């Protein structure tokens, strides 16, 4: 089933919740989290370690601000833990997730996707190998974040055919590759580049072409969240669509890329 069809099915799955709040929606405060290893979209600032900052955090505030709802974009730990909290309903919204069949079971995705992201095979320049399609990764050891997804088709192929070690931070994956403990790192092109620049080793790695996947990145509400009402999702979608038409997230990505790589040290 195509991703857009899946989203259409899940988008309106939850029943409306009667509102009794200042905003007129089901809740006044939206508790949000996401992948803390995702600059320039999201990351943990040393100045505010309990919160996440980045282009998506700023974008989300522009979406929700006009709706009269307060946003708390909290650092809840690893990406695997964030997904678990969404499943339990302990956070209201995941700020950035690819679609998988498992996640559809506990989250309602919001159209349109905020952006599309290519995922690449990253290798040390000193140890490149020929890569043209997924089977070229067979027999090699890879690494990425625990519970990371790069699209349903690739995830299934990797599960059946590839050896990919999950770790807590993507810095760990890149340092393992640098030390010749793994052959490659799987990570999004944008996020991988800014992470390497931050680590000061960008000139030691190269992203092989073509990407292993190119997936839409979505906001997704926990099905157990009290904020997840039909009225709020529709208002959220309207604001998201308007900003998407303006290319607003791309502007913020450029701004926060510069901030992360040039200012934050």
Automatic annotation (TrEMBL):
Residues 1-19 form the signal peptide. Keywords: Signal. It holds the Pfam family SBP_bac_3. InterPro entries: Solute-binding_3/MltF_N. Residues 30-257 form the Solute-binding protein family 3/N-terminal domain. Belongs to the bacterial solute-binding protein 3 family. This is Amino acid ABC transporter substrate-binding protein.
């Amino acid at each position: 089933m195509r991703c857009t069809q899946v989203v259409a099915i899940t988008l309106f799955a939850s029943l409306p919740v009667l509102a009794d709040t200042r905003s007129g929606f089901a809740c006044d405060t939206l508790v949000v989290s996401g992948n803390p290893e995702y600059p320039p979209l999201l990351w943990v600032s040393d100045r505010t370690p309990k919160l996440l900052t980045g282009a998506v955090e700023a974008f989300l505030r522009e979406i929700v601000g006009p709706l009269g709802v307060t946003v708390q974009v909290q650092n809840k730990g690893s990406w695997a833990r964030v997904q678990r909290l969404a499943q339990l309903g302990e956070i209201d919204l995941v700020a950035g997730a690819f679609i998988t069949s498992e996640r559809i079971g506990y989250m309602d995705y919001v159209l349109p996707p905020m952006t599309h992201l290519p995922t690449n095979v990253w290798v040390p320049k000193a140890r490149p190998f020929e890569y043209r399609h997924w089977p070229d990764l067979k027999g090699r050891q890879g690494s990425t974040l625990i519970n990371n997804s790069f699209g349903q088709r690739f995830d299934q192929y990797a599960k059946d055919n590839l050896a990919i070690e999950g770790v807590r931070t993507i810095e760990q994956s890149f340092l393992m590759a640098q030390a010749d403990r793994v052959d490659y790192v799987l990570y999004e092109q944008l996020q991988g580049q800014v992470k390497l620049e931050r680590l000061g080793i960008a000139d030691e790695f190269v992203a092989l072409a073509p990407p292993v996947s190119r997936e839409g990145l979505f906001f997704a509400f926990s099905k157990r969240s009290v904020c997840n009402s039909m009225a709020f999702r529709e208002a959220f979608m309207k604001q998201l669509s308007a900003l998407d038409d303006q290319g607003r997230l791309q502007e913020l990505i450029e701004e926060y890329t510069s901030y992360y790589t040039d200012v934050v040290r």
